[in-house]
């Protein structure tokens, strides 16, 4: 019995989850009930200033979700078949991807606390680890990748998928000293990824 499955439906589902998660990030600073009491420029400025932390975490999380989406797209450029185990790894990864808007909302409101920072960082750590496991499983299973993938490419994307988990571990350690700095270092992720060179 052939257990190989096509990847089109997986990619469609995942693109939908990414789109919804990236859209839901706006909820973190778009509580329209706050605007009802604004009557002049000074109150508006105060409200906009109070929303600054939410905006910073919104931008950061949007970039991180974008990085996850790019890596997922790269993986499925090479993954031509899937199986039940890979589907479950993918689903577990997206449990944590779908949680990113929630942990972003919490860290935006309570970023000065270690609990909120740890929640955000652990969320990203597990999402990143599952993306890494997803690639390692697919690249180690005969027949899942396209025939033109060489060992160098596999190793390159393995390293790339470790960027967010490693940054998350560093963020968790920094959070013991400063929660706000710890949960803000993810801004370096796109620069690290950009500095890496593949094929």
Topology of helices and strands:
Layout: H1 8-24, H2 41-50, H3 52-78, H4 84-110, H5 114-140, H6 151-160, H7 163-175, H8 179-182, H9 189-195
Question: How would you describe this protein?
Answer:
This protein is an all-alpha fold and 199 residues long. It has one domain (8-195). It is 71% helix and 0% strand. It contains 9 helices and no strands. It has helices at residues 8-24, 41-50, 52-78, 84-110, 114-140, 151-160, 163-175, 179-182, 189-195. Helix 1 (8-24) runs antiparallel to helix 3. It is elongated and about 65 Å long.
Task: Summarize, please.
The chain has helices at residues 8-24, 41-50, 52-78, 84-110, 114-140, 151-160, 163-175, 179-182, 189-195. The chain has 199 residues and is an all-alpha fold.
Low-confidence stretches: none
- Oligomer state equals single chain
Average pLDDT, rounded to a whole number, is 87
Rounded Rg: 19 Å
Percent range for helical residues? over 70%
Order of helices and strands: HHHHHHHHH
Cα shape:
elongated
Helix vs. strand class: mainly alpha
Strand content: under 5%
Largest sheet: none
What is the terminal separation in angstroms? 36 Å
| SS field, number of helical segments | 9
How many domain units?
Answer: 1
Tally of DSSP β-strands = 0
Features:
199 residues
């Amino acid at each position: 019995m052939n257990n190989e499955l096509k990847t089109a439906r997986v990619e469609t589902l995942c693109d939908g989850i990414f789109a919804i998660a990236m859209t839901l990030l706006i909820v973190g600073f778009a509580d329209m009930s706050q605007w009802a009491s604004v009557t002049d420029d000074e109150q508006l400025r105060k409200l906009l200033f109070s929303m600054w932390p939410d905006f910073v975490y919104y931008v950061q999380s949007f970039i991180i979700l974008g990085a996850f989406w790019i890596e997922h797209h790269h993986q499925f450029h090479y993954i031509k078949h899937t199986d039940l185990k890979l589907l479950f790894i993918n689903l577990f990864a997206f449990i944590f991807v779908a949680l990113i808007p929630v942990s972003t909302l919490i860290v935006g409101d309570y970023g000065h606390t270690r609990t909120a920072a740890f929640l955000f960082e652990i969320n990203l750590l597990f999402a990143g680890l599952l993306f890494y496991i997803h690639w390692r499983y697919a690249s180690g299973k005969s027949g899942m990748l396209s025939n033109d993938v060489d060992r160098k490419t596999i190793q390159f994307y393995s390293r790339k998928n470790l960027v967010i988990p490693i940054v998350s571990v560093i963020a968790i350690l920094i959070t013991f000293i400063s929660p706000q700095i710890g949960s803000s270092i993810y801004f370096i992720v796109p620069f690290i990824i950009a500095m890496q060179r593949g094929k």
